[in-house]
Amino acid sequence: MGVKFEHVTKAYPGHKPAVNELSLEVQTGELLVLIGPSGCGKTTSLRMINRLEEPTSGTIYVDGRDVCSYDPIELRRGIGYAIQQTGLLPHMTIEQNIELVPRLLKWDKKRRHERTRELLSLVDMDYDTFASRYPRQLSGGQQQRIGVLRALATDPPVILMDEPFGALDPISRESLQTELKRLQSRLRKTIVFVTHDIDEAMRLGDRIAILQDGQLHQIGTPQELVQAPRDEFVAKFMGRLFNFPKIQTSVDLIGQFMQEDTSHVHQECSEHGKIVKIDHLPLWCWIDRNGVLRGVSSQPPTGADQWDRNDWTDPKLAAVKDTDASEVVLKRLIEGEAEALPVIGEGEQFIGVVTQRSALKALSNVEMENDE
Ligand SMILES: Nc1ncnc2c1ncn2[C@@H]1O[C@H](COP(=O)(O)OP(=O)(O)OP(=O)(O)O)[C@@H](O)[C@H]1O
Ligand SMILES: [Mg+2]
């Protein structure tokens, strides 16, 4: 069961639109993360899916059908919803909380009870220990687990989660993320997951949609967003993966950890320029007579015609620019995309390389600065 937004706008009278011409599609079985600054319209977008809000214009489809054509009860039956404050009712036990929706759907007692046991075991919480407790007798992390279980209770194909782990310390948060990932790999629900936290988005999202001022700014897999951010806003956003409070401009840092002139010529040709091998690294660069980087390779060029374009990777993919956000460059290196990446400056001139080693060194310098 997929979810699709088609030119969806939500405008509250007297305000600029909370959601503005939003079009995107969540595939069946996909976990899509909505992320963006506070007030950019994440919660509003979510609440329009299960008709807690109605769009001002545009259409939302669930399972290919306009949500407005569903009976709201029938619609919500197919959609689980977990919110930040867990929404657990304080005067009801854990079991009663989990059973709320099944009761609404008139499941009999036996079936409800079995389901509650099954759900608790999904997150390794013992039924006899926890079922009869009240929410306040649980830790924050346990309460959030129950919030998630409650959204799963009737096994809906679509689940909406609005910062479900927002209130947790980083360690509990990470363990719940791991748990959700594990559950999702088994259950394959269609999940729309709202968060502020880019680490969480990277960890959980099959794809990430970045919203800004109610509009879709960029959507893609985590890899795509890191490697090809549409603009500075996205690059900065992805850059928050590394908190570098002291570093002002990206040029500075790339400059700091870029190595210049550590190559020797592998082959030269008056027509095509030269191929250089970067010292101590599996990296060959083809630089033309004007100093422009034409190709990148992690293998020594051996073919009959070493200038054959097909043997080289396009620098657009395999090089970085000296103006790229340093965090993005560091991330590419640290994730192991390559041991080293060539750096190009203005006019795509080859100016040096950045290496995993220099990246790690730059990172540890930054950490030390921040510790002071
Ligand atoms: N009932 C309302 N009346 C008027 N404006 C509203 C209403 N609900 C939300 N808004 C406005 O719509 C915009 C989007 O709100 P929304 O709650 O969707 O943001 P969000 O992205 O979830 O933010 P946060 O990350 O802080 O939760 C905000 O500017 C908010 O003030
Ligand atoms: Mg919100």
Automatic annotation (TrEMBL):
The keyword Transport applies. The gene is opuCA. One of its GO terms (molecular function) is ABC-type quaternary ammonium compound transporting activity. Residues 3-238 form the ABC transporter domain. It comes from Dictyobacter vulcani. Coiled coil: none annotated. It holds the Pfam family ABC_tran. Keywords: ATP-binding, CBS domain, Nucleotide-binding, Repeat, Transport. InterPro entries: AAA+_ATPase, ABC_transporter-like_ATP-bd, ABC_transporter-like_CS, CBS_dom, CBS_dom_sf, Gly-betaine_transp_ATP-bd, P-loop_NTPase. One of its GO terms (biological process) is glycine betaine transport. Its EC number is 7.6.2.9. This is ABC-type quaternary amine transporter. Belongs to the ABC transporter superfamily. SMART domains: AAA. The keyword S-adenosyl-L-methionine does not apply. One of its GO terms (cellular component) is membrane. Residues 313-372 form the CBS domain.
